[in-house]
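Listing S7. Sequence submitted for prediction.
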Amino acid sequence: MLDTAVNRPELPPEIARRRTFAIISHPDAGKTTLTEKFLLYGGAIQMAGQVRAKGEARRTRSDFMQMEKDRGISVSASAMSFDFSGFRFNLVDTPGHSDFSEDTYRTLTAVDAAVMVIDGAKGVESQTQKLFEVCRLRDLPILTFCNKMDRESRDTFEIIDEIQEMLAIDVTPASWPIGVGRDFIGCYDMLRDRLELMDRANRNKVAESIQINGLDDPKLAEHVPEHLLEKLLEEVEMARELLPALDPQSVLEGHMTPIWFGSAINSFGVKELMDGIGKYGPEPQPQSAEPRQVSPEEKKVAGFVFKVQANMDPKHRDRVAFVRVASGHFKRGMKLTHVRTKKPMSVSNPVLFLASDRELAEEAWAGDIIGIPNHGQLRIGDTLTEGEAIRVTGIPSFAPELLQTVRAGDPMKAKHLEKALMQFAEEGAAKVFKPSIGSGFIVGVVGQLQFEVLASRIEMEYGLPVRFEASQFTSARWVSGDKAAVDKFINANKQHIAHDHDGDIVYLTRLQWDIDRVVRDYPDLKLTATKEMMV
């Protein structure tokens, strides 16, 4: 584990005010809507888009791919930066659909904390649990937002119990809902003893808060109907006795999560959550790397690529590498060393993202996320430094669970298809394998929906209609081991061997039996289901 805040030097104020976090949740719990409201409060957009609404109002800022706009789902993780009450928030919105979870796993390596969004009616769902496990592996601090309180939702204690049981983490309420569903009128702020009321009429208005002194203040009765007030007093008293109080150190270590209640679409509870992220969220943390870990307060710049997005702007064939700055103070035009190829790169046009509006980044500090446009030199897992050979570790690449062969609708265009597939492979959107026997490519993904996304993107961005066909293989394993043994293995299993886009050897399997057989016959070979994105 990386050394925590106890023995760390004080960070420079510019770095200490950075908060870099990701939003994780099950599909449709309201992640993208919450992102929009963050931007609204950060003053980044004037009117929040909604995922499901009419006309131009429904163009959410963080869903920029054509398919995302059509389906109302987020497919790729997008990064945004904005200022809020003295803090600089770097927010990464991740796709919740399990088909894109790999993108999400990688994103979680680039942030210091996670905001977990839970639907008040559904509680903890399968996808939330999976993503939570990844956060647990990295001991990320987690803040929870229980969304959709303005719809019929479950009992507050029930939701809290479920989080504690299913995720094995202590929960402390930062606010308590008053009423539920149609009767939901707001929350009682447990940390600052204030009453927060929701305005249903105007969705983009900041909620009003009323200063009160504790729960026995007579002013409470003026704003809260009697039957709700009784219930509130009783529940808050129970909550204070039964649930642990907020311990900031425990939150930073990832053992406790504060929970806020609200309704993102009504802009309610969002501001309190943002204050919470500023107050209890972690500063930029050290990054694990070989041969030594990188600390944010170091003078020299280091950063790593955690995502590559191709064709963000359909008018230009470009790729943007999303880079998390791990240390130092980056200035535009700096010469950085690309560790994998040992070549210098001068970074002359780095961009900061406000979703799909990009601005040139004149400078960036440790903790920020910047985009570096490039023509394919930068891949996921690459490290950029000021000359020192450091490799950031721990960015995973998973074995695909579904494999299909892909053919261009027009056989003359096979070359173009190869180019398109290579681009998606470098982006990490899919695995592309070139079998050693026969022509064509085999594309591997984690979920079925990804095939549709790929086909739609190849058509939109390259003008190539393609079709995916079933392949005889069901999964792939990376082969490693001593050269002689690997060569012997390849010659014996020609029809099962392919190479991925990095040129590494992959064994394509049909049944679990194939894998067991190799393990039995070739004890000195290693078959792995994940590969670290490094050289």
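Caption to Listing S7: primary sequence and predicted structure tokens for the chain studied. DSSP finds 14 helices and 31 strands in the chain. The longest strand covers residues 302-310.
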